Amino acid sequence: MFSKKKTIDEDYVSGEITKIEGDDVEVVMDNEEQISEKMTSSNVLKKYTELGKVMFGMLKDYRKGVYTNVPWFTIAAIAFGFLYILNPFDMVPDFIPGIGYIDDFAVFTFGLRFIETDLHNYLDWKLEEEE
């Protein structure tokens, strides 16, 4: 899935997002606990733990069909970010101390730029549902 010759930038991330399919979302959901654990155990990704919970919530609500006001690109961006975190042998392997999660952080950050508005819309919807 990931080529060592690529550099991580917005073009790379957006190109990879377009390759995400429904089965990839299922892989993410099946590995939610493992992804969450990697995020919380990494000093680099830890600050995104709460945001990760929101993103998993959006995926769950999307899959259940209760939240459909979201473009596929956003769902794919979330799935791609989580799949990248899940993959221990990405551009910079996660087992390299100190720098192993830097590329995961970059991919996650670039992905967030694409979907920030949709995440805000989801949170607004979630708050309205709770009232």
TrEMBL record:
Provide the taxonomic classification.
Answer: Bacteria, Pseudomonadati, Bacteroidota, Flavobacteriia, Flavobacteriales
Where is it localised? Answer: Endomembrane system
Kindly state which keywords UniProt assigns to this record, in alphabetical order.
Membrane, Transmembrane, Transmembrane helix
Transmembrane region(s) = 66-86
Annotated signal sequence range: none
Superkingdom, natural source: Bacteria
Name where it mostly resides. Answer: membrane
One of the record's GO cellular component terms:
endomembrane system
Residues annotated as domain DUF1232 = 75-110
Q: Is the keyword Zinc assigned to this protein?
A: no
Return the protein name: DUF1232 domain-containing protein
Q: How does it sit in the membrane?
A: Multi-pass membrane protein
